[in-house]
Structure formats: structure tokens, C-alpha cells
């Protein structure tokens, strides 16, 4: 084989590697950011529903103040912790966000469980409608998080395997932090009267 043929083969291999991955990382990064925006959108929907749910519960039942206070405080704390798409590579920021959202999810679960004790609340049409919307929102959050997890997994696989790893060095791309279950998420909330 001549030197010219060897050079042509090497150049062809380099060009093929160059062209096959040039847009992969930016495309997948945009997909991760879009998936994260949907997660934030669903969390915002939940935040918007909570005050209406709390007011309906207050008006319909002689309810335990501590449960309502816990929900209100958890919502306030969850709104304080934000996570932008740029922070997805920071494990500590993701962990803080997950903890705040996990606490809110837990207090909402307690609210729903405690509401079972009050027949007049269960019969209230406004409460039932809000409860249904909140349950639907929680399902949307689950789906959005699943989609985000898939987008991050695809992106992380690309930036940590060949030839994407080469592109990651060129772009300065780093693996992004994914969701993990919050501590205690494997246990149902306990409600005591």
C-alpha cells in the first residue's frame, strides 16, 4: 500500500469521525434543557394549585392546622430552591432541589391521606376537582422527570463514550446530574391522629 493511500484512509477516517458527531452533543444538550423546562413547568403547575387546595380544605373542614401549615411551609421552601438548566452538572444543586420537591410531595401526600378522615371534605366538589388536578399534576411530574432522565442518560452516554468523548473535550461538555430518589421515598408517609 502506498503512502498516498494510507494518508487518504487516515484522512477519510478523521473526516468521518469529525462529521458523525459534530451536532450530536449540542442537539442532546438542547433536548436535556427542553426536558428540564417541562419538569419546571409541571412543578410550577403544582405550586399554582397548592394555595387553592389549601383554601378549599380550610373552608370545608375543621382541619388540623399543623398539616396545612406543613404544606404551606413546604411550598414556600420549594419555591426558594431553584435549579436552572445550567446547574444540571452540579450534584449538590440538584440534590437540594430534589429535597425541597420531595418534602413538598411528602406533605401533599399527608394532606391527601388526612383528608380521608373528613367525609364532608371528600364530598366537597371543589376539593375533589383540585385533588384530581393535583393527582394529574403529580403524574405529569413523573412523566416529565422520566423524560428528563432519558434525555440526560442519552447525553451522558454520548459525552462519556467514544467518539462523543472527543467532542465533549472540544465543547467542554460534562455529564449532567440526573434525578435520584429522595431519602425515604421508598416509605409511605405516616399520618397520626
Overview of this structure, please?
This protein is mostly helical and 193 residues long. The protein has one domain: LemA-like domain (de novo design (two linked rop proteins), Up-down Bundle). The protein has 7 helices and no strands. The radius of gyration is 24 Å and the shape is elongated. 23% of the residues are buried.
Topology:
Elements: H1 3-21, H2 24-60, H3 65-80, H4 91-115, H5 119-122, H6 125-160, H7 164-171
Helix pairs in contact: 2-3, 2-6, 3-4, 6-7
The biggest beta sheet reads:
none
Principal-axis shape: elongated
Poorly predicted runs are: none
Order of helices and strands: HHHHHHH
Structural class: mainly alpha
Number of distinct helices: 7
CATH fold naming: de novo design (two linked rop proteins)
CATH C-level class is Mainly Alpha
CATH superfamily: LemA-like domain
Whole-number count of domains: 1
Helix coverage percent: over 70%
Can you tag this structure with a few keywords?
193 residues; mainly alpha; de novo design (two linked rop proteins); 7 helices; elongated
Summarize the structure.
The chain is mainly α and 193 residues long. The chain has helices at 3-21, 24-60, 65-80, 91-115, 119-122, 125-160, 164-171.
